[in-house]
Amino acid sequence: MPAPPHLAQTLRSRTKHFRSSSRSLFLAVLVGVTVGLGAVVFQFLGHLVVRFSLVQYAGYAPPEATGEGTPFTHPPTTLVPWMIVVVMVCGALVAGWMVYQFAPEAAGPGTDAAIDAFHNQHGKIAARVPFVKTIASAIALGTGTSGGREGPICQIGAGIGSMVAQRLQLSPRDRRILLAAGMGAGVGALFRAPLAGAVFAAEILYSDAELEADVIVPAATSSVIAYSIYTQSLPPEVRFQPLFGIKVEHAISGPLELIPYLMLACALIPVGIAYVQMFYGSQWAFERLPVRPHVRPAIGALFAGIVGVGFYYLAGQQMSALAVLGSGSGTLQEAVHHSLRLGPPLLIAIALVKIVTTSLSIGSGSPGGVFGPSMVIGGCFSAGLGLYLHDWMPNLAPHPEAFAIVGMAGFFAGVSNAPISTIIMVRALTGDFGLLVPTMLVTTITFGFGRRSRLYRKQVPTRMDSPAHRGDFIVDVLDGVQVRGTYRPIDSYSLIHESMSLDEIVHRLADNHQHYFPVVDADRNMVGIFTDDDVRSYLFHDAIWKLANASDVMTTNVVAVTPDDDLNTALGHFTALNLEELPVVEDHQSQRLLGMLRRRETIATYNRRIREHKEGTRE
Questions:
Q1: In CATH, what is the architecture of 18-468?
Q2: 37, 227, 496, 559: which has the fewest Cβ within 10 Å?
Q3: Beta-carbon contacts of residue 254 (< 8 Å; ≥ 6 apart)
């Protein structure tokens, strides 16, 4: 006995949803596997470059966080400080040449480029970008550039997600989702924080308190997979440790202890503003240097190296002072666990000089991230301030190291406008969940006062401001307005018969301003469609003009509407597929062509409906 029509329709709908969900899950897993392997390669290359550049020629093995797990054992060496500058310049010269020669979009921080691709490039990133970014960033960071791994792994992961989507010819919406899933997978794997990676991918796209909800589940899936693969490449003893080693445990015993954290938040705001202003001021200055962009990273590395090594001598040749170069994660771990050993003057000085060296390094176009330096700046500055507050009010600030943890989150939340993922990530890096209340307090304040001065300038305020969601918020007023009153009859279009030769098509295009060309059979049933762009690819192959016909040029995967469909449905197709015109057919079975519906006229109908609504409201 056949199922009732409404039940059959429900079953088809559920089956379609299940297939769509299964496909999304499979694609997220595929992206997670690829990004996880990419993170392993990127991390290994970075350690390899350190071993055979800084260690080999400068005798300097940058202290790293315990959980990073370098695969190399460095031999005993003698530090030659000024050779660090030479190695930095050489590395930046090679990295700069690679980037500007093969993928200029891979220059500087990669996170902003990934955000821009999501909002403005339909989720498209050139396939060469993740490969160039992997090698160039490993060289730049491995030779001492003051930068982090977050930016590169974001762009690498985003590029892999976009590449997978483009190879499978997915829609712009699906490309954007996989791009963001790749970002989350990279961050979740490299920082061993899969939940933070998923939230980061959804949150970092916007400067206001907004999340890209469609991204969270695919990003969580890919982040968990990438994390699982990446951690298997680490030594067993650090595989499941927090990045900064043993778990840190702090807590507050009463609400009065929030007072010094409030003072910390107020101090972090101007430091964050100074960081952003100096970073973009440096970028502005380097862009105006009368030299090829290929050598700008080397110039930035030269000045950053001189500042870093000079600071090392001014600080009494303390190895911790060299945290102003490279990642600085080892010194940050020292600040988290034993800040008293470093002392407040050195900690605060490291934070301020790190602002300068990062601005010179990444602002000059060298590939590297700004998350890692932000953690060092926020953590060291806060640890130094925490020591001062401990001396001034020991009862209210009994744990000065706790300020380093809270300050890391508060500082980056203020400059990145990503408070939720930052809180989760810092908790994962330290393993400390006892400071959740002061962390929320500080991040809320820095986020609220730092929104106008942000590191990621490609962020848009909300989904309504994103070109990626243009059309998503205007379909309701079109609900119930049928296509039949808006489409153009087919008599005003030039139709192409399926047997028409390519030679005839080319000559017809020469005298026609039409962009979309429906292909029909003898009964005027539509069998396909092509655009003038599809034909242009054959213009320089006139030898096949007589051999090929319309069937060779057209696509048969056509999305069409009927006169009884509403403009809500049509606009959904326009937005999802990024089309300018849709064929209008008599019904979906016969595919008899009646005309074409244009996006511009659909928007005009929307505008007219909005005016009518406003006038009706005023009355």
A1: Orthogonal Bundle (1.10)
A2: 559
A3: none
